[in-house]
Amino acid sequence: MIRVENLYKAYGDIKAVQDISFDVKEGEIYAFLGENGAGKTTTINILCAILEKDKGKVLINKHDLDKNSDLIKRDIGVVFQGAYLDDRLTIFENLYVRALLYGMSTKEAKQNIQTTADIFDLRDILKRKYKNLSGGQRRRADIARALLHSPRILILDEPTTGLDPATRNMVWKTIKRLRNEKGMTIFFSTHYMEETENADRIAIIKKGKIAACDTPHALKQKYSYDTLNLYGDNDEIKKYLKEKEYKTKIRKEYIEVKLESSMKALDVLNDLREKVSGFEVRKGNMDTVFLTVTGKDDFDGEVKDE
Amino acid sequence: MNKIYALASRNAKIFLRDRAAVFFSFLAVFIVFVLYLLFISASITSGIKASITANGFQVSDKLAKLFSDSWMMSGVMGIGCITVANGCLVNFVNDTALDKRRDFFVTPTKKTSIILSYFFSTILITFSMNTVIFFIVYIYLLIIGMGALSFGAIMAMIGLILLTSISSTMMMLSIALFLKTESAHGAVVAIASVVTGFATGAYMPMKLFPKILRDIFAFVPATGSVVMMRKIMMKPALQAMKSEYPAQLVDILADEFSLELVVGSWTVPDWAMLIYHVICSLLFLGIIAFAVKKKLK
Ligand SMILES: Nc1ncnc2c1ncn2[C@@H]1O[C@H](COP(=O)(O)OP(=O)(O)OP(=O)(O)O)[C@@H](O)[C@H]1O
Ligand SMILES: [Mg+2]
Q1: What is the mean pLDDT of residues B72-82?
Q2: pTM of the prediction?
Q3: HSE (CB half, 13 Å, CA atoms) of A35?
Q4: A159-173, pLDDT tens digit by residue?
Q5: By CB distance 3.0 to 4.6 Å, which of A88, A167, A262, B202 could disulfide with A163?
Q6: B106 close to A (CB below 8 A)
Q7: Contact A102 B108 (CB under 8 A)
Q8: Which ipTM was obtained for this model?
Q9: Contact list, A93 vs chain B (CB under 8 Å)
Q10: Can you list the domains of chain A with their CATH numbers?
């Protein structure tokens, strides 16, 4: 559905995107995970044709971005990172202008606004000015705006940043429903690890490059590890761990030990039974994947406590 | 076309719902109006009386004031066209600064249509607000004793207001396209209003400027339209004078108040001013088209 090949974009000296390639299948939920400044927004802006790329090829629903950007614009709905609806207009007015820009008749426009307003529970606040809405209501309006023209692909740039957990859940429920009921393809960026659990596939980007790309399960298999946290008399524990060549991170309250598998914890605990005062075993998750992939898991004894 | 209409009404709503913005675009006109009535009117009126007396005639206060006021009010109209257009275009610059237009660029809508929408909303608002200003001014002049304008004259005035609204919008939009912040726009607006005010003789008769400056001011597009408006607005006052004094004296007065636009030694006829206006508008349109093609996001 979305195919990007060797995409490059620089702002002057800043190389925001360097040789990114990926492929999103129809009906897939695809996550773009990266820290601030990784190049997520830049990539998304290129996909929705508001930013010109330096190099590379973009195909969306088989249309080439260079030749048929108008067709692409009909196929995609975009939720931007910031707020771009007009403060002084009501939700209805905002949606109405945009609906007409997609070439709808006034009747179609009104119908589509009602339908999307129902999905996002906006019916009662359609007549309220955008500036008077809460953050969550605005976000719902933003997403409703992206869906006005029933696009086949929904692109969201950090859709849930700044929302409370309940609203975040609601947004995700809706996104999943769109995929399940309408077969919509979803492409979203985020810097919340836990949010990527919603995705079928995840691309982790780092400094404008894709550092890893796979299903959440495969990524965990490959990059994640379990850890054992040991509390208690430090020096002897340290000595033991060093002898056995475990990778450790020394924290204020405990020592974090990187394990090949969680069963290994049994060996360590058996040997140190007398010396530790407490312990916990942690399953690896997307956080550990992210830290490994972006090279931030600085295991090796150094005190790196916050 | 539907799309341009949708966007233009969006722009207009955004402007009209900002009461302060609407108020301030009227304010410039209002200030000139009040300053004139309080301070400038008296000195110009006595200037008129002095010239007439110097030629051995007497003139009533009322007639001198009518002459002065109707001369002044046309200048007010010229300022109105610039300030109201700029007031509307603040939203254009604001949309640039906040990158609001990206939400339109992701729809299958041409860049040109998006820019044209600002163009239409600005022209429409500038034209209607200045038409309102015109009727307020007209009623004021009727009250102080001006003879009524003919229907044709009123139509000509409205036509000139439309023309001036179009050219001011084109000129100011072609500048606004290159601005990134509201403060830069604010500075440009201030300069444009002051230059227009002096060039059209709204602040003081052009005769008071050195000849070279007057010749330069003649090229400010609004100057021509204010001169044409002035001829229409002053017709009743001039007629009243002509019935009382020799034509020669009236001509002296008309010259003193620069009722005609003179470049070098050429008295520019109306058709030439109209053509110049159209040429300027096309030139600005060219700049707009160039900017839209070249850079604009
Ligand atoms: N208009 C611009 N001009 C210059 N540099 C820019 C511009 N936009 C982005 N950058 C730079 O490009 C890099 C990538 O930015 P981008 O906005 O794509 O990051 P991001 O992954 O979306 O980050 P965030 O999570 O903060 O939104 C950053 O270093 C940023 O400073
Ligand atoms: Mg971003």
Answers
A1: 85
A2: 0.86
A3: 10
A4: 988 888 888 888 899
A5: A167
A6: yes
A7: yes
A8: 0.85
A9: 10, 13
A10: 2-214 (3.40.50.300), 221-293 (3.30.70.260)
